[in-house]
């Protein structure tokens, strides 16, 4: 066991490692994810929805020639009831006119094309749902990291802040705040983010607190890494999996939140289409009794979207093998 | 304590610690502090270049805290730490760059000390990247060199820590510690988490590296066999204080402090006949809580030789010729070997 002139030291040569073990986290993650069919369906649905909202909406508008806000005079029947899916506009004789405009998903209360509005509405709904979640995650991540990493007084201040924010009844307070700020896309994002940053903050804080005591963090310090580098290189990568899982679940909640605000007229400003508003349109004034599709179509799409986000979150959690419940 | 402590041959000691105190407040909350853990209470020693100093003691005696203070992972409450004649006790983080380069740590837990999400080459190369030494390719070359140096296959470069055994991971930890050509390695129980055969390999590796790279070690352990085989001098700690310090030969031949004698008597001998012949002077009870250390000599509640004076007066660490010092009012005779 003497060193001699060579550089190699040590008794044991490199031990052969089973090559099948040699797969990265990413490979294992992908393999687990692809085996989960429900999650694949959910992911495909969401990707299609995103594509429809971004490029599908103007294409649909161009193909049908119906703008999202265009009101068709003959888009209501003689009793003023919106048309059912797959119907032509009403002719002068009171009967559907086979040469007139065709509405795949029927029309709404004001004789507008439901399909086009639904696709444009996805934009507002998804933008607010995802945007508010992104803002909440960034705020929660930064505050949670600071609190968990530095501990002490900073942690005390931030943790008390989190608890204070949690103590507010969110929907009630959000309604008040939205009323003060007024409707609009950015305002909706602000209001919703204000009521969803504290859960990620708390998750990150607790995760960082336990990671902080790990020896590899101490090892990083002994090498001379700064606090910021340690957080970015050694802590953040360990948080991405639970945060992505958490975020997909919160997007679902925030989409519902946004729909709720819009339903109450506090979301996106009309006539910009939005799913919550469309549901409200169909439900108020008892319209659904005569024409159920007006409320049912946006309602179903909202349900499917929320379900898809939840399923995606569950699937990602299994694929990442994130331990325990984080919600 | 500002002047550098001169060592035997006139050059300043590589590391010199004097009167080091580290206290941790506990239960700090809204209503003030409930108590203070006296982890290290006035420890002094020095380590010259090329030397291996063992720090031994039961768990909780403050040896790991001492190691972390030396590397300034913890800021000492009082005392002075000089590294190559430069006072680093209160140096701000920005001025610790030289210490971070010249002194590195090998950790106890080979599973916890490597980030599971980073490829091992990335962990080993991290000190190089942080010190901004060389291009990406130069760092790669150096990492491969380090892998060879610690007996790892450089082809396993881009694997993750979970693909290695405990001993291999400890080699990776050592490679990381060696990255910047340090002069001092602080080893905190580097082999106690490994099985016996891996222990021997890692110790051999550390010994070979010592000869090859002229390293000094501050070697934290509770295993006296390792001390006897591997180290030059020993510092015996109990409840945050130094009980006895001597060269390995002197200490094992004739311990003067009753605590050292008890520790030596507790090491098993792998020969039943010798073990029986030795007889036993068992130490009973546990070390007192460092939250409320006893008055006088910290060892007196468990010491077979304790008298009233031991309860009243802290025995100072007094030299008894050569490098042998001990802190005891009623030491064992120089000749009484256990």
Written overview of the protein:
- The complex is a heterodimer of chains A (327) and B (338).
- Chain A is mainly α and 327 residues long.
- Chain A has a single domain (25-55, 118-320), classed as MetI-like fold (Orthogonal Bundle).
- In chain A, 66% of the residues lie in helices and 1% in strands.
- Chain A has twelve helices and two strands, in the order ααββαααααααααα.
- Chain A has helices at residues 25-34, 37-64, 114-150, 152-167, 170-181, 185-194, 198-212, 215-223, 227-263, 275-283, 287-290, 293-320; strands at 87-88, 102-103.
- In chain A, strands 1-2 form a two-stranded antiparallel sheet.
- In chain A, α3 runs parallel beside α7 (198-212), α5 packs antiparallel against α6 and α7 (198-212) packs antiparallel against α9 (227-263).
- The longest helix of chain A is centred in the middle third of the chain and has 37 residues, at 114-150.
- With 338 residues, chain B is an alpha/beta fold.
- Chain B contains eleven helices and twelve strands.
- In chain B, the strands form two sheets. Chain B has an eight-stranded mixed β-sheet with strand order 6-7-8-3-9-10-12-11, sandwiched between helices. A four-stranded antiparallel β-sheet of chain B has the order 2-1-4-5.
- The two termini of chain B are 38 Å apart.
- The chains are: A mainly alpha (327), B alpha/beta (338).
- Chains A and B meet through α8 and α9 of A and α2, α3, α4, α5 and α6 of B.
Features:
heterodimer; A: 327 residues; mainly alpha; MetI-like fold; two-stranded antiparallel ribbon; 2 strands; disordered N terminus; B: 338 residues; alpha/beta; eight-stranded mixed β-sheet; 12 strands; 31% helix; globular
């Amino acid at each position: 066991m003497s060193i001699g002139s060579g550089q190699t030291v040590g008794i044991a040569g490199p031990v052969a490692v089973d090559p099948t073990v040699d797969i990265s986290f990413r490979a294992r993650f992908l393999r687990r994810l692809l085996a989960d069919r429900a999650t694949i369906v959910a992911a495909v649905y969401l990707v299609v929805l995103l594509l429809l909202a971004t490029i599908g909406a103007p294409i649909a508008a161009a193909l049908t020639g119906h703008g999202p806000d265009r009101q068709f005079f003959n888009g209501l029947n003689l009793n003023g009831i919106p048309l059912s899916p797959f119907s032509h506009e009403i002719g002068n004789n009171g009967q559907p006119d086979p040469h007139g405009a065709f509405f795949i998903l029927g029309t709404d209360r004001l004789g507008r094309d439901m399909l086009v509005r639904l696709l444009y509405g996805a934009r507002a709904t998804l933008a607010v749902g995802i945007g508010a979640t992104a803002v909440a995650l960034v705020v929660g991540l930064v505050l949670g990291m600071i609190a968990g990493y530095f501990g002490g007084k900073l942690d005390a201040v931030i943790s008390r802040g989190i608890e204070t924010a949690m103590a507010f009844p969110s929907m009630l307070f959000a309604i008040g705040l939205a009323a003060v700020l007024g409707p609009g896309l950015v305002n909706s994002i602000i209001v919703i983010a204000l009521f969803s940053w504290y859960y990620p903050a708390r998750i990150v804080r607790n995760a960082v607190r336990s990671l902080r005591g790990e020896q590899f963090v101490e090892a990083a310090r002994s090498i001379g890494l700064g606090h910021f580098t340690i957080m970015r290189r050694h802590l953040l990568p360990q948080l991405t999996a639970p945060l992505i899982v958490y975020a997909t679940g919160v997007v679902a909640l925030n989409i519902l939140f946004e729909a709720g605000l819009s339903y109450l007229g506090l979301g996106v400003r009309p006539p910009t289409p939005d799913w919550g508003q469309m549901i409200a349109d169909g439900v108020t004034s008892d319209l659904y009794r005569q024409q159920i599709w007006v409320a049912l179509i946006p309602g179903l799409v909202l349900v499917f979207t929320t379900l898809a986000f939840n399923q995606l979150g569950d699937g990602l959690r299994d694929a990442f093998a994130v331990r325990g419940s984080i919600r | 304590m500002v002047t550098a402590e001169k060592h035997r041959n006139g050059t300043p000691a590589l590391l010199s610690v004097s009167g080091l105190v580290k206290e941790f407040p506990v239960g700090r909350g809204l209503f003030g502090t409930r108590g203070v853990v006296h982890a290290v209470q006035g420890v002094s020693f020095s380590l010259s270049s090329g030397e291996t100093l063992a720090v031994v003691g039961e768990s909780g005696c403050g040896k790991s805290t001492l190691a972390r203070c030396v590397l300034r992972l913890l800021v000492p409450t009082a005392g002075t730490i000089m590294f190559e004649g430069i006072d680093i006790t209160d140096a701000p983080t920005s001025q610790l760059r030289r210490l971070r380069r010249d002194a590195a740590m090998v950790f106890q837990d080979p599973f916890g000390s490597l980030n599971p999400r980073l490829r091992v080459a990335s962990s080993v190369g991290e000190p190089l990247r942080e010190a901004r030494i060389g291009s990406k390719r130069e760092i790669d070359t150096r990492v491969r060199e380090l892998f060879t140096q610690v007996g790892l296959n450089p082809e396993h470069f881009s694997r993750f820590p979970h693909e290695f055994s405990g001993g291999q991971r400890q080699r990776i930890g050592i490679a990381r510690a060696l990255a910047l050509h340090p002069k001092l390695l602080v080893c905190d129980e580097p082999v106690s988490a490994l099985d016996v055969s891996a222990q021997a390999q890692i110790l051999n590796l550390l010994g070979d590296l010592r000869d090859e790279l002229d390293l000094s070690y501050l070697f934290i352990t509770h295993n006296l066999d390792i001390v006897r085989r591997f180290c030059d001098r020993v510092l015996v700690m109990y409840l945050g204080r130094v009980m006895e310090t001597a060269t390995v030969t002197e200490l094992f031949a004739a311990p003067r402090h009753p605590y050292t004698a008890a520790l030596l008597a507790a090491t098993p001998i792998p020969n039943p006949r010798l073990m029986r012949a030795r007889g036993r002077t068992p130490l009973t009870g546990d070390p007192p809580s460092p939250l409320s250390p006893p008055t006088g000599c910290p060892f007196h509640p468990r010491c077979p030789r304790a008298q009233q004076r031991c309860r009243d007066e802290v025995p100072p660490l007094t030299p008894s010729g050569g490098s042998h010092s001990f802190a005891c009012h009623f030491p064992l005779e120089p000749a009484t070997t256990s």
